Amino acid sequence: MTPDLEKARRENLRWLILLALNSAQPVGASEQVVFSAITPMMPDLTQLEMRRNLDYLAERDLITITGRDMQPQWFCKLDRFGLDVVEYTVPCEPGIARPNKYW
After folding, report:
1. Is the model's pTM score more than 0.70?
2. Which mean pLDDT values do the consecutive 10-residue runs of the chain (103 residues) have?
3. Which of 39, 57, 74, 83 is most exposed, with minimal Cβ within 10 Å?
4. The domain at 5-86 falls in which architecture?
């Protein structure tokens, strides 16, 4: 059985997005700032891939996206539940590669 590398990449990207937005608390960040924070770890990341995963996180009520229809750039912010996921205070459902808590 071969590992699903695309699935692993998506799940890792989602975790990195949550971490980047956690660093931008309480204000949030533009998608370009998040993109810039992640590209050192994923240099081949595309804008479309980023937006698809931002949408996924928004659908799961982990982040809020503003400016989707009005602005060329989206602005993102962690929701309460997204912050709880990052801080390990709630279980993380499948779809996000959150590392196991080791402390």
Report:
1. yes
2. 88 98 95 96 96 96 90 92 96 94 78
3. 39
4. Orthogonal Bundle (1.10)
